[in-house]
Amino acid sequence: MTENDPKTNLTEASQIHQSKQGPKRKGTTARLFDEMLHLIESGQWGVNESIPSERTLMKDFGVSRIAVRESLSMLKALGVLNISHGKSTTVCKMSSETLAKLFPLMLSMEGKQSLVHVFEVRLGLELQTARLAAQKRTTDDLNRLTALVKRFDSYQTDTPESIEADHQFHVQVAKATGNPLFWVLLNILGSYVKFAQRESGKHDPEQHRRASQAHHAILQAIIERDPEKSQQEMEKHLRDAHLITSAEQNRIPRQWAGK
């Protein structure tokens, strides 16, 4: 065959395409996964409803049984599908708990930069929750926040229990906004934040005391229905906590962290 032979050009083009796309089965599985996920996101495969059988999926998508099973396994690992032997596969309802389990795994793949990413999201999210909580809080909200502040104060240093009390205080501020999306998002972030706190706290009584003071200041601003002050106190609290956590993770002496 010559250099200009159409068959030669076609073969070369096919080889180039395959080298870019990788192994055919991997590309097929990825495509099938995306298409199945779209069917779930769009509601065509409804929550708690059975999806088509493997044989039907193979026929409808024109793929192999291996590609179907790999895609189903990926969706099961995400908590999107419930697969039981001898029963039809059904779509699961995604919960904040499911997302909370996946979130730390995703962030762990980003390395140290993930701490900065989480802080940036928390800062944007919690400044708004503090402001809205001061405007919309109820007597029941204040009672719950007060109880959580006292619970945190009952500890002298950072422990798994005090870290959980701290997290629940922030979640309760979010709940006081009346917008459920705020506290759902905070719960998702919470698993990573609590891990970072456990790793960085080093059982420091001074750090715990400063966090306690911040909780009291935020609560007082919410009691006074002062959205500006509530937002300011929340920002001070988050920045202080992030500074300490970052310093510990990078093994920078605490007194040099802000320089």
Overall number of strands: 2
Overall pLDDT: 80
The top level CATH class name of the largest domain: Mainly Alpha
Strand proportion:
under 5%
Please give the domain count.
2
Shape label: elongated
Level-2 CATH architecture of the largest domain: Up-down Bundle
Largest sheet: 2 strands, antiparallel
Amount of helix: over 70%
As laid out across the biggest beta sheet, the strand order is: 1-2
Alpha-beta content class: mainly alpha
CATH superfamily of the largest domain: GntR ligand-binding domain-like
Contiguous low-pLDDT stretches (5 residues minimum) are 1-25, 248-259
How big is the Rg?
25 Å
* CA(first)-CA(last) distance: 70 Å
Helix/strand order: HHHHEEHHHHHHH
Outline the secondary-structure elements.
Layout: H1 6-21, H2 24-41, H3 54-61, H4 65-77, E1 81-82, E2 90-91, H5 96-108, H6 113-136, H7 139-153, H8 160-175, H9 180-201, H10 205-223, H11 227-249
Helix pairs in contact: 2-4, 3-4, 5-9, 6-8, 6-9, 6-10, 6-11, 7-8, 7-10, 8-9, 9-11, 10-11
